[in-house]
Structure formats: C-alpha cells, structure tokens
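Lab meeting minutes (informal)
Scribe: AK
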Amino acid sequence: MNWTAIVPVNYGRDCKTRLAERLSPAERTDLVAAMARHVLGALAAAASIDHIAMLSPERPPFAPDGWIADGGHGLNAELAAARAQFPGAPTLIVHADLPLLTAGDIAALLDAAMASGAAIAPDLSGTGTNAVAIADDRPFAPAFGPDSFAAHQAAMPDAAIIRREGLGFDVDEPDSLSQAIARGVAGPF
C-alpha cells in the first residue's frame, strides 16, 4: 500500500511560542526547521510512503515537491482541505516536531492502520495526538489541539492506538526542549 504523508509545520509565522522564554524567534524557527527536516528524513526512509506533502504558511527551503500553502483557516480546516487533495489515498498526518521519529515508528503506525483501518499515535502525556494514519476512505475530521487524543478516539473507536517514543515525544514546552537537548536531538539553546 502506498501512503501519502501530510506534514503540517508552522513555518513562516511566529512558531513554538511556548518556548519564547528560552528561545529567540530566529532560534525557534531554526528548531522547527531542524525537527521538520528530521521528520521528512524518517518519512523518506519509510518504504510505504509514496508521497510527502508539507503544509505550511510559506514554502520552507527544505520542503518536498508536495508543498501545500496553509491559507490561515486553522490547523484542522487546513488538514481537512489537504487530505481532500488525495481522495481515497491512504493518508498519514504526522506533526513536524518529533525529533525521535524513525522509519520503524512510521512502519508500526501504518501496519496497525492497515490492520484496523486507522491508527492514532498519542503524545507521551496521552492527551494530544502526534500522528493519525487512515488506510481506508473513511471520513476524518481532524481535531488537533487540546485533548485531541480523546477526540480522535471518539471519532474513530476502531482505530489502533500506537504508543512509541518516536511518535510520542514532541517538543512544545521548555521541559521537552530540555529533554531534547539532553538527548542531543536539539540545541544547543
């Protein structure tokens, strides 16, 4: 099965604002770019990914050929519109701030989605969603944001749940930035 991956990244706007106490705007942009490059590399190494589309306000210099302009209608509306560009295609939505993501993590998520129709990868706290894979042509209304994991589970009760560090560890808060720096996957800041 050939998958389309959609990677939303807030490039071209003020980004990672919860890290503003630690990082300047330029450092936050550099961090976003480094993590997005890492995620794109993991996707490129995943055998089942046929097409990668990056969704962002501006086309990053590292964007794949499949760039989709974010029109500023909110993440969930933009993701729904992006998915509609690939009707019927198995689709993976994966966030760009996963510095530990591996091709093996992606394969585990996609394999689970193929077995059950869909799979959800929560963040390490178990409240947010870092990736959703939909193997069938079911309707899907993205619900990323606070408590998105519960919202996605409620919308797709048959979806497999995949908990892996590479899919769960995101960098949004100063504590997660410190952990990423300590692990050598971000920084030095």
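Next up, CB showed the second protein from the same session:
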Amino acid sequence: MRLIAMLPFRVQMACGSLLGWFMYHFLPARRVYATINLELCFPELSSTQRKRMLKDHFDSLGKGMIETAVAWWTPANRLQKLHSVKGLEHFDAALEKGNGVILLGAHFTTLEIGVRLLALHRPYRAMYREHNNPLFDTVMRQRRESYLEATHERKDVRGTLRSLKDNKAIWYAADQDYGRKHSVFAPFFGVPAALITATARLAKLSNAPVVPFFQTRRADGSGYDLQLLPALENFPSDDDVADASAINHVIEEEIRTQPAQYLWVHRRFKTRPEGMQRPYPSRGRRKRRKKVAK
C-alpha cells in the first residue's frame, strides 16, 4: 500500500479500475448483493442501466481500495492539488455553538480519501468500527490518527461524548446494517432499512449540530470535490423514526448525484421488519444468483 501511494495519481486510478474489474469477476457473492441492492433502490431503471451502474460501482470500489493507500501514506502537498472543498463555513458556524459537531458521513467508496482531504482544512476526530483483523486494525488506526486529532471505536460512547463536550468535531457514518438492537426501520430509497439511533442520541446528549459531509470522485479523473452542507434543522426530534428518516433522506439525495460511488456491496437490507423476508440469498442459493448478476 505504501508503494501504491508513491505512484502518479493517474496510474493509481488505472490500478483501481483493474482491481475493480477483478473484484467484479471474482467476488460473485458481493456482485449478487450489489445487484439486489440496485434492483431494490432503482426499480425505475432498466436492467441494462442497472448492469452498467453495477460495473461502474465495482470500478469505483477498486479505486476506493487504492484511495485507502493514498489517504494513509500520500504527503499532504501532493493531495492539495487534487481536490476542492465547499461549505467550510457550515463546519465553522456549527463549531462556534460550543457543543462540538457531528459530521454526518456515509459509506461511499471514497470514504477514506474524503476523510483525509477534509483533515487538510480542519482538525477533527472520527468514529470507526474495529476491523476483524487485529493487524489491519492497528495499521488503520495508526494511519488515521496520523492526520486526525483522534479516533473513537464506535462502542466508545463515553469517549465520543467527552470529545463533543470539549467542542471537537467528530465524523460518523451510521448508514450500515448493524442489526436490530438499537435500530429503527426507516425508508431508504422507499425500502425499510435498519438504522441505529446513535447519531440522534449523541446529538441529543451533547446538543451538537449535525453537519452532513460528502465527497465525490470527479468523472474526469482529476481528483475530488468535498461538500459540507448546513446543519440539519429540527434534529434531533423526539421521534427516532423521523430522525432516522431525515438521515436516510440526506444520504439518499447525495447517492442520487453519484450512485455508482456508494457502497452497494454491503447487505444494507439484511435486517428486516417482522414478517419481511431477507432479499439476499443464503449460501445455498447464491450459485443460482450468479447468472443473474452476470
């Protein structure tokens, strides 16, 4: 990964496209998950359009893996000319309130590079999910803490609240299926999806504004555009479902501007409301879905 970070940017992106091609052809289970997600979220598209989006997604997924190396090891001076940023005034205005800031992120394939690029402009911290591989987790945490103020494992609620109390900004993305516990169901592209209530709970306990933050990989391959939006209004409320719906709506609106760059290989609809069946095949049925995905 350190060697990859030394390559010219255009070569890095070419390597990402090649990696994405391999993943598309040799990760059939993930291809199936992404196919089903796109069918559920974009029923208005033709099968041909969704297949094109699927291939574009794997291209973006491969580039995202290369971007992880770029984010962790590329010097700041090389990254400065690869991006633009808008909306920093929303970050500053929220921080001036003195209760910290929750930067509402989402699991786009550009997640790692977006976090690194924003750190070039403002100091902040981030919440993360511990990786199953201890070695990778150690490297990941050390590299992120080389350019972030600090990191908090997602279960470290006390540490997170302490940072917000100290008027620090914390990046957090809750848009994955973490199971039924501490989750509510809210529409995501019109489909009920489980979303943990942590964002609203943290905002309620700390009075921290929630500022959406997203990044986009430019279509011409020249770099990235970062965008911070105004803090969510009337958030949090006294309704967990309404709060989850508000978060999903903001993320969904961003996804529609760059659908191939969202992380569709995640089983976003794994946890279902009572009486609803999982849309993903069990291991025994996956082989029958391979031909559909192709």
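CB comment: The CA atoms of residues 16 and 63 lie 4 Å apart.
No objections, moving on.
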